[in-house]
Amino acid sequence: MATEGERRGPGRPPASSRDAVEQVALALMLRDGYDAVNVDAIAAAAGIGRTTFFRYFGSKPGVIWAPFDATIDGLEAMIDTAPSGGDPFEILREAIVGSTRTALYSSAVWLERFQLLDAYPSLRSEAYEHWERWKQVVAQHVARAAATQSNEVVPMAVAGACQGVFLAELRDWNNRDEDREDVLDRLDRDLLAVCSALRSLLP
């Protein structure tokens, strides 16, 4: 049986890292369209086998969503490890910006996925559960600060407002990964403005 290296053929360098395969996959999807690119095309272009692809991402939509879900994990971890007794809005703003910073610097193409998300209904149909999970992390943090439930009005209102800021920045098609610090500065500035306006909602 041929190994993955043999199947690649001569002169074809392996794209062995997850990040390298992600870059190849997103480049293909942006060039040819998300719906037109299948797993076999990604694997062939990246010089890997299907088994490796599925180990990295689980599915074709996983190329888009897995790195975003990792950002949600980072957001939750930063909130949970913040010093107790701190300003809940400051904790929230720093965690959102911090988790986004980690995401932007962990991938060369993290921002490009949002161009695909807005362009293809087949991806938008899956978006709800991912965005809802992000919002729930924020709502749970606010609920703890307000001594209430995460599905109450104030936690959901704050979570929705913060998500609106997050989405507005990430959906700006002028964003480029080489402009990471500009993206983060705008996100921080806009979150500060929104959180300041919402501060009176908490005791």
Structure description:
It is a single chain. The chain has 203 residues and is an all-alpha fold. The protein has two domains: 4-57, Homeodomain-like (Arc Repressor Mutant, subunit A), CATH 1.10.10; 64-201, Tetracycline Repressor, domain 2. The protein contains eleven helices and no strands. It has helices at 4-8, 18-32, 39-46, 50-57, 60-80, 88-106, 113-119, 121-124, 127-146, 153-170, 180-198. Helix 6 (88-106) runs antiparallel to helix 11. 30% of the residues are buried. Mean pLDDT is 88; it is low at 1-13.
In short:
The chain is mainly alpha-helical and 203 residues long. It has eleven helices and no strands.
At the fourth level of CATH, the homologous superfamily of the largest domain is Tetracycline Repressor, domain 2
Give the uncertain stretches in residue-range form: 1-13
Give the DSSP E fraction (strand runs of 2 or more residues). under 5%
- Amino-to-carboxy terminus distance: 67 Å
CATH architecture of the largest domain: Orthogonal Bundle
In DSSP terms, counting alpha (H) and pi (I) runs of 4 or more, how many helices? 11
| Major beta-sheet overview | none
Domain module tally = 2
Oligomerization state of this entry?
single chain
Structure summary, number of beta strands: 0
CATH class descriptor of the largest domain: Mainly Alpha
Secondary-structure-based class equals: mainly alpha
Helix content: over 70%
| Molecular shape | elongated
CATH topology of the largest domain: Tetracycline Repressor, domain 2
For the CA atoms, what is the radius of gyration?
A: 19 Å
Overall pLDDT = 88
How are helices and strands ordered from N to C?
HHHHHHHHHHH
